[in-house]
Design brief:
The complex is a heterodimer of chains A (486) and B (392).
Chain A: H1 8-18, E1 25-32, E2 35-42, H2 48-64, H3 72-79, E3 85-88, H4 94-99, E4 102-107, E5 113-117, H5 146-154, E6 162-169, E7 175-182, H6 188-199, H7 209-213, E8 227-229, H8 232-241, E9 244-248, E10 254-257, H9 275-304, H10 312-322, H11 329-349, H12 352-372, H13 378-391, H14 397-417, H15 419-435, E11 437-438, E12 441-442
Antiparallel strand pairs in A: 1-2, 2-4, 3-5, 4-5, 6-7, 7-9, 8-10, 9-10, 11-12
Chain B: H1 2-18, E1 29-40, E2 43-54, E3 65-74, H2 77-87, E4 91-93, E5 99-102, H3 104-109, H4 112-120, E6 129-133, H5 138-143, H6 152-166, H7 175-183, E7 190-197, H8 200-203, H9 207-210, E8 217-227, E9 230-234, H10 237-246, E10 253-259, E11 262-277, E12 282-296, H11 305-334, H12 341-348, H13 350-356, H14 360-364, E13 369-380
Parallel strand pairs in B: 1-4, 1-5, 5-6, 6-7, 12-13
Antiparallel strand pairs in B: 1-2, 2-3, 7-8, 8-9, 10-11, 11-12
Helix pairs in contact in B: 10-11, 12-13
The chains are: A alpha+beta (486), B alpha/beta (392).
């Protein structure tokens, strides 16, 4: 703790020096009946008009008041118009408030300083979600503004038991991080554990929720064990289930803990659409998952090791298609998949104006020309295209990348050991997934360990009025979400 | 650290030591879909129909496959295969054999002499169709190209499948059930036969595909009758039908009867044959089923219930006569128990069978007393009551 100098002029000079005479450090010294009142704010992060309208006007008005109190400090504190006004007596807090867009008022002879919120609008408004589009449901998404993000949740859950636990992490960035949970539903043990893990972080800067994700998991894995979303309704659903959500300042992506495997196959829409159809959609998603992981590997295995399994006519057609292709099947598949992954990566990075050119080159070069030139066989293009389409069903980029890694592992296994290779590596994969655990929740819940009561919303989705309990593997505190009608 | 090294070593070892055993690229294989066995003098001649030879180098589109026949000769089957392997530029792959055709010489010599190689080979499926070539060599049959199917073995397979369902002169016999019937007690097998109509040379060239009416084509013939693994002879078409009815293989077929000196065509369906053993000398067979009248060319008015009953009676009588004739012929001429009467006796009266077993085909089977009952009914007359005639 560092005391604030009693001279306003000295404080201003000291602050200017602290910021290395940066031009955006703005100050005003007003003399009221012989007492100096210093006003300090950063032009870059504060709204200058707010400062002029409310603070300078208010200070001058207070100065002109004939019935002035003995103490100018108290007068100002009581007469300025602002909803967020408080005093501090620690100089070391000055930079945090200044950079956050607050205005600081120091008065000669007082060791306290008045702090007022005059933040500038440095973020965009609430827009439609671009990374998780849905057809049916609310369209808003989180922004870079921390208070707006919390507001989007408060708006949805009006229960005062929705608690935010705030921390500041990052020695230089001083990033605000809020742990949101519903008191009485979420497991306090888990909430404390999350907080403990976050408090341990000692780093110079946190810019995104992705920075802190790795501190929150217990075992390393290719698959993400924490789901991130930019949709307020997904977060609200998670909170109501008893999950813990972490908001990071300046980041529209929140983290949801604990996350299980099946969460990646769910969307927020599943709760809004007809439940009977959702079960079918979920089965399709699981099918797509299996297809995208195994298809290239199975294709390699059956065409190079187990030709017996292919129907006669198909085998002959495949053999004819492969005629004249110079590379082994495995190489062909790896080549095409790699080209597709590069195409996907460059498509994300390239500006919108170039995407049309990209898709033409991609479709023509990958599809038509490569086949005509005899580099790859048409069936390989079909296999890779089918695999890629199926992988696009999942919105979480980390999950997609995890699947991609395992797809390559299976391709290598199939090209060296055939079907047996796929089988043995499937076992390895399942063991790896089943051994993952975070916050006492197994990654394959509710299937392993099996929880019968939680099956109402895993693959099968029961009608809303039949789901009485929250998933037990998340929190056991308050399992009833719906009263049974009499 | 130690653990990671161990894992890496395990992965490297599994990948390197497994090697590429069984690894075959599709374009390095010659996919054999049909095999023909012939015998000339003392040598076996083996022919493979290879289905995946592309028409030209640049073509990679589906359905443009051409077929090639490679054949080799040798004192044993393996010797003949060795010769084919020398001719074929690609590795011979036998996993997709569809059809195997054996010539009459092979049948007379004994099928078991060549079957060993087919069973022993781990690549081959055991469910392919087995056919007997009649009058022509087996090699010529797999050469005939059909305009309706992309390669010959496929056309033979579809021919058998459709025929077994609708005509009842031929049945589909797979390799595994043929061998099973040879080995079973009191059972002799039959094989569908196949032959060529038209000129062989024209039929095996691409020209056959270009004409609207093919120069030559494949026809399924009557059943070949075996005794054990040896060919005894061929039945007639009518007999084949009767044999199939008795073997419970025919479900639907067309039957012509003569009634009031006119031909009536009946489409029989839902046929069922039940064989009962009374004792070792007497066997009772009941054939039941129904039929629809398909074709009448005279003045019979089908509104009359009595008329239909009369037709029914004639049908029952003629059918019975046919069946009896077919059984008599196998009993006297071939002495081959293709209906498996011995097998039924063996299953029902196993103790008595022990005495009969050795002399069954020569002594007891020809003397077997067989009593046939027919219970056939005419169900429907189609959508016509009277035949259409001028002036009405």
């Amino acid at each position: 703790m560092e005391k604030i100098d009693k001279s306003a002029k000295k404080v201003i000079d000291k602050t200017k020096k602290l910021y290395g005479n940066s031009p955006d450090v703005n100050n005003r010294l007003i003399n009221i009946k012989g007492t100096n009142v210093g006003i300090l704010f950063l032009e870059s992060s504060s709204q200058a008009s707010t400062v002029s309208d409310f603070i300078i006007k208010g200070t001058l008005y207070a100065g002109s008041n004939k019935n002035l109190f003995q103490n100018i400090f108290d007068t100002l504190k009581n007469s300025l118009f602002n909803s967020q006004l408080f005093t501090i007596n620690d100089y070391s807090q000055f930079p945090y408030f200044l950079s956050s867009g607050f205005t600081i008022i120091v008065v000669d002879g007082s060791s306290d300083a008045i702090i007022m919120e005059t933040r500038a609008q440095l973020d965009r408004g609430v827009t439609e979600s671009s990374s998780e589009p849905i057809l049916r449901g609310s369209k808003d998404s989180f922004t870079e503004s921390h208070s707006k993000n919390l507001g989007l949740i408060r708006k949805r859950i009006k229960d005062p038991n929705l608690w935010f636990d705030e921390l500041k992490i990052g020695r230089r960035t001083q990033t605000r991080i809020s742990i949101a949970y519903i008191n009485g539903i979420a497991d306090p043990k888990k909430q404390k554990e999350v907080k403990k893990r976050l408090q341990k972080i000692d780093i110079d800067g946190i810019l995104d929720s992705g920075n802190i994700r790795d501190y929150l998991i217990e075992q390393k894995s290719i698959f993400p064990q924490i789901r991130s979303t930019e949709r307020p309704d997904v977060v609200s659903q998670a909170l109501l289930q008893g999950k813990i959500v972490i908001f990071v300042e300046n980041c529209p992506f929140t983290l949801i803990l604990p996350t299980v495997f099946i969460d990646y196959l769910h969307t927020s829409e599943d709760e809004y659409q007809k439940s009977a159809n959702i079960t079918f959609t979920r089965v399709l998603r699981i099918l797509a998952l299996i297809v995208t992981v195994f298809t290239p590997a199975i294709y390699i295995a059956i065409t190079t090791y187990d030709q017996n399994t292919i129907p006669d006519k198909l085998l002959i057609s495949l053999a004819i298609q492969r005629e004249g292709v110079p590379f082994p099947t495995a190489f062909e598949i790896i080549l095409l998949t790699t080209i597709f992954e590069i195409l996907r990566e460059s498509d994300i990075r390239s500006p919108n104006s170039m995407s049309a050119a990209m898709s033409i080159v991609g479709a023509l070069v990958l599809g038509q020309a490569a086949v005509d030139a005899g580099i790859v066989s048409p069936i390989t293009v079909i296999v890779v295209a089918f695999t890629s389409i199926c992988s696009l069903i999942f919105t979480d980029i980390d999950f997609m990348n995890g699947i991609r890694t395992w797809r390559f592992i299976f391709i290598v296994a199939a090209s060296t050991l055939g079907i047996i290779g796929i089988l043995s590596f499937t076992i390895v994969w399942l063991i790896k997934l089943a051994s993952l655990e975070n916050l006492e929740t197994s990654f394959l819940s509710p299937f392993a360990p099996l929880s019968k009561t939680s099956q109402v919303d895993a693959i099968y989705r029961a009608p809303e009025q039949n789901i009485y309990t929250r998933p037990k593997y998340i929190s056991n505190l308050n399992p009833h979400r719906q009263r049974r009608s009499k | 650290m130690k653990k990671t090294i161990l894992i890496i070593i395990t992965i490297i070892l599994t990948i390197s030591l497994s090697g590429c055993s069984g690894y075959d690229e599709l374009n390095k294989l010659s996919i054999v879909t049909a095999v023909a066995f012939d015998k000339t003098d003392d040598e076996y001649e083996l022919s493979f129909l290879i289905a995946n030879s592309p028409k030209s180098q640049t073509s990679s589109k589906e359905g443009e496959a051409k077929t090639t026949v490679y054949s080799g000769k040798g004192k044993t089957v393996t010797e003949a295969i060795k010769e084919i392997e020398q001719i074929s530029p690609k590795q011979i792959y036998l996993g997709h054999i569809n059809v195997v055709i054996i010539s009459e010489d092979i049948g007379e010599d004994g099928f078991l002499k060549i079957s060993d190689w087919l069973i022993r080979n781990p690549q081959t499926r055991k469910k392919f169709y087995l056919l007997q070539a009649k009058d022509v060599s087996a090699k010529n049959i797999i050469k005939i190209v059909s305009p309706l199917e992309s390669f010959p073995s496929q056309s033979i397979a579809t021919l058998i499948e459709s025929n077994a369902q609708s005509k009842a002169t031929a049945t589909s016999v797979t390799y595994s059930n043929f061998i099973g019937q040879i080995l079973e007690k009191g059972f002799d097998p039959v094989l569908p036969s196949i032959t060529i109509k038209g000129d062989i040379k024209d039929g095996s060239s691409e020209k056959n595909l270009e004409t609207t009416e093919p120069e030559s084509y494949l026809v399924l013939g009557p059943l070949a009758i075996y005794k054990g693994d040896k060919l005894q002879g061929f039945s007639t078409d009518k007999e084949s039908q009767s044999i199939n009815i008795l073997k419970n293989e025919a479900k639907e077929f067309n039957y012509n009867i003569e009634y009031q000196k006119e031909n009536i065509s009946i489409e029989a369906s839902k046929l069922k044959t039940v064989i009962k053993v009374k004792d070792t000398q007497n066997i009772e067979i009941t054939v039941s089923g129904s039929g629809d009248i398909y074709n009448i060319n005279n003045n019979i008015v089908l509104q009359d219930y009595k008329e239909i009953k009369k037709i029914e009676k004639t049908w029952n009588k003629e059918m019975k006569k046919d069946l009896e004739k077919a059984i008599k012929k196998t009993q006297t001429e071939y002495k081959a128990d293709i209906f498996g009467f011995g097998n039924i006796i063996y299953k029902n009266l196993p103790k008595k069978w022990e005495k009969l077993e050795n002399d069954w085909n020569d002594k007891y089977f020809p003397k077997l007393n067989i009593n046939i009952k027919t219970n056939l009914k005419i169900n429907a007359t189609g959508s016509l009551v009277k035949t259409i005639k001028e002036g009405e």
